[in-house]
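Hey, resending since the last one bounced:
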Amino acid sequence: MVLDLILKDDGGKGMGAVGLSFGSATSGQGFDVTTTVNEIVANLQAVETPWKTQLTALTSKDSTLTSLGTQLSALSTDLQNLTDFSGTMADKTGSSSDPNVLSLTSASSSAVAGTHTVIVQNLAQTSSAATDAVGASDVLTGGVTFEVGSGGWQTVNVGDGSTAATLSGLSSAINNANVGVTASVLTNADGTQRLSLVSQTSGSAGQITIADSTNNSTSPTTLADSTTPDANTVLGLATIQSGVDATMTVDGVTEITSASNTVTNAIPGVTFQLLSTGTETRGTPETVQVVIDNDTSSIESAINTFVTDYNTAMTAINAQEGKDSSGNPEPLYGSSVLAQLQEGLESAVSSSFGTNAINSLISLGITANASADGTISLDADMLSSALNSNFAQVVSLFQDAGSFGSTFTDTLNGLGNSSADGGAISLALSEDSSEETTLNDNVTKQDALIATQKASLTTELNTANQVLQSIPEQIQEVSEMYGAITGYNENQNG
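The structure tokens again:
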């Protein structure tokens, strides 16, 4: 026996038929309810197939759009590095004619290209003081009073209960007091020790002065060795190196000083290290030439990166016009977004601005490739020549209002995936998102309908199956009742 069930969707339209085969109606075998329900559900789910196919296509499209947006974003970052007033275009390099006298450390974006002369009169020195040698275990008494620069007198005592009455104990106490000097214990070859004080401030402002009865009669230094008395008062503690500022002449300006040999205040935006006063020639001090120049090497590298990333993006866009290795159209095949991207990029890089010698990418050696696929190439020699001969115009091309830099920035904003700028990719993703929402809602509703029908069908078919399985028993009961009434027994012989 075969029964065909006609399936309906929620709109009442025929969805197909599922045949139920359970053999003889009197066999009592019934039918497989689970298999039957699954066949019906599969038929109902067929409605979702075109929706899911569309969702798969949209997902691939979104992935490709996002990838292209990322590549345009990288290109935008490259461009920003060139258009930023403090970016690569502002980078400087420098050199010293005698690195044994003056070593150039850095030249910031605020430095101005040019040549400077420096004559070093003397180097900066950091003040220090030291005691005579005493035994490592000698017991000390009293304290040390000193001042750093004009910071006021400070006293650190030894053996006062919290400090060991030794040279190492005094050293620790001075460091723990944080009084502007660094104390340490120097050990001689014979095992004796000296206390060393080094100012934490270089130059004259860090001058260490040891208090005595003359310069500080109310609180002089009272350090003493009670184990082995020293021949000198206060263990001979005295300043052994005065704090001195470096002095130099820069570009003819004399008496320029620096508290440190790391000089930051002599040439704007330039930091250099003083190493010596140089050599005199017939009584004339050595003049060091400091040359500050534009970092054209970094600029060339940045422009090369821009060209590479531009070609990467254009190649990826072009690839969407064809088919994949299986012969299927690429996700964006036939999309109007591709034409927007191609036309926008090609127009931006081929435009000219103003009447300067450097008024386009072409004048920098950046030209379209012969393949006419929208990619570009860079002539490194031509770029180097432009940077060396017309640096200011190269900067203008990228950084002036209404020139290439600002125009191409606007182009990228109009093409990219930034929702704030309403770029072409952003708008396409937004449209896809709306369509995806509708399709997902359809699938969700259909799944809910299927779940309801599955539950109802399972209940109904289980009931029907129970009825089918009970038919043999009912026939037997009827047969027995018939035999009882008629006296007929179908199993009797003759």
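The chain has three domains: 53-87+299-430, 92-124+245-294, 128-241.

Sorry for the duplicate.
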